[in-house]
Structure formats: structure tokens, C-alpha cells
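Input sequence (389 aa), recorded before submission:
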Amino acid sequence: MTTTVIRNIGSLVTNDPALGRGPLGLIEDAAVVLDGEEVAWVGPSAEAPAADEAYDAQGRAALPGFVDSHSHLLFAGDRTQEFNARMEGRPYEAGGIRTTVAATRAASDEALEANLARYLAEALRQGTTTFETKSGYGLTTEDEARALRIAARHTDEVTFLGAHIVSPDHAGDPAAYVALVTGEMLDACAPHARWIDVFCEKGAFDGDQARAILTAGKAKGLHPRVHANQLSYGPGVQLAVELDAASADHCTHLTDADVDALAHSDTVATLLPGAEFSTRAEWPDARRLLDAGATVALSTDCNPGSSFTSSVPFCVALAVRDMGMTPDEAVWAATAGGAAALRRTDVGRLSPGARADLALLDAPSHVHLAYRPGVPLVSAVWRRGARVA
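Predicted structure, C-alpha cell format:
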């Protein structure tokens, strides 16, 4: 295997406090040695061992590749008119998610995969080296299964979200749709997924329906994730904790009991500020969660309706500006926090034995991700030890 040493890193985020300063494990004037797909060595640049290849970071900052633990990239179509109407403050009567469902069902496998590959490449250029993505825009057994088959060709972090909304085909009989999701659809989709998710919200699935769906998924070997408490107070967070879900995602409307439950569990609160930005909704209170001791992740929620961004750096800036996070906390949440939300220990950090995923910034510090919002600061990306951007 080829080894690569990246020297003269001005400031290196390792996310390993044993290696450097503070929770981010910061090392100044650092170096990283990549051996094949793993990190072999981290430390002061002057002490770096020799390697087959060398790269001079020229004082730039480096950090682990971003871990985007919540996205919806298996879709077709466009909802520009819906967004435009929302920003103009005028009513719009198109079908929301149902519009995307119709377009996705009509799209070919080739078109869906090309769309997925396009947004993954876009995210990679911005430093995202690990991502989760979901089904949820097919809502038939055939369309959900094909979405997951396509996704599984691009990532191991595949989530079955047949319970995104009640399918338009079952609008008058939600119980029949829950039976489909927990029966025939789950049987077809489980072999292609690692996770099962449900949108537990008024207008989607209530607590009892969500529990039935997630419990059926667990019986098939899929681990739960939950779209929880995005639009209103509800049972989603408590259900996520009850079922040991890896993450409760959105977490915008939380009671004190919800915050306490997250703080005393292994369930990560995944915050998705792109959704609040794009819908002008209330921001999640990250400060409240962090001060209570909850583990927080940041992700894009990239989807065509409510958060059409693939940029984790943009979400970091929003979290710092509008959600009460410090730059250090936001960077940790977008790397190590995302890894925790996927129950991964091999990504989200730069320490020996970790996967060799690294983003180099055209800036002297990771703080510039929030300090210079909207600027394309990622100048180079390594994934599994190979430079890919």
C-alpha cells in the first residue's frame, strides 16, 4: 500500500483529546501519515516519519472529512416553484413531497442514479467523505426497493424510509399503508438497508404507528432512526430514546423531558439547520441540548423540498450564527457527531486506525468555516487514503 505524509498543517482537528488540545484534539504545525485506507500516524510536522509520497499543506488547516448522517438523495424532479412561493410569502398548492414522489416514480433507474452521483460529487468537493441517504420518495414496494438498491452501490449507510408520508395510493387508509410498510415493503427493502426511519409528526405517522414500523424494522435487523419533533411537539424523541434509535433528527420542538431523555441516552440529536434556513422556521436550540449533555450532530438534510443544500460547511456556519453553537462545537458535530449518529468509530476523527478521510481548508483554522460563510474553503479532500478532490 502507498503511504502519504501531509506535512505543514497549520492547525489539525483530530477529535481525539489524547492527541492535542481541547475536545477537538487540536495540533498546531502538524502532520498526518496515511497508510492505504487508514491513518497511521498523527503528530508534530517536524517528527513525521517518511512516506512514499509527500504533500505540503503550506500552513492550511485540516480536519476529518465531514460525516453527513441525514440526506434524501434518491429523488427526481424539482420544487423550485414551491420554494419561490414560500420565499415570496404567497400560497402554493402543489403537492410538496407528493410532487417528488410522482417524479421519482416516473424516473428511470439510470436517471435516479445519475442524480445521486451528481449530489454526492458535489458534497465530496465540499469535504463530505461519509454520508447516509434514504429512500422515501417511491412509497411503493418496487420503488422503495429500487431506491435502496441504487443507494447501496454508493454508501453503506442506507436507510429505508417507506414511512416518509402515507403514500398517495393509501391516502384514505393509513392503517393499510402501515401494514404494507411493515410487511411486504419491509421484506423487499431490508436486504438493501442498514437503518429504518419514520417521519413521526402530525400529518405523517403518530407515535403508535411509528413504534410499529420501527419495531418491525428492528425485527428484520434494521436499526432505528427517527424524524422527530421537527414541526411540533410530539412523541418522536421519546420514542427514539425508548427504541435506542441511533439518532433523533430535527429536534426543533423539545420539552425539558425530551432534552433530558436525549442527554441520558445513546441517541444523538441530529440538527438540520438547512431545513430551518429554507423554510424560515424556528431554529433548533443547540445550546440547550449541549448544556444538558446531549450528543449533537449536524447534517444537511439535503432534499428537494425543504433543504436543498449538500454543503456541510454552510450548515456549520448556520449552527454557529443561529443555533448557539461555538465553531469548535459545530465542527465536532459535523464530524465526530455525525459518526456517533451512524454509530461509527472509524470516521469523524483523525487518529491512528481511523479511516483516512481528510479535508484540507484554504484557511489557517477550522474556525473559518463559520467566519467566512459561503466561501468554498475546502481545497483538497482525501477519502480512504486517496486524494479525490
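Checked by second reader. Residues 109-125 form the longest helix (17 residues).
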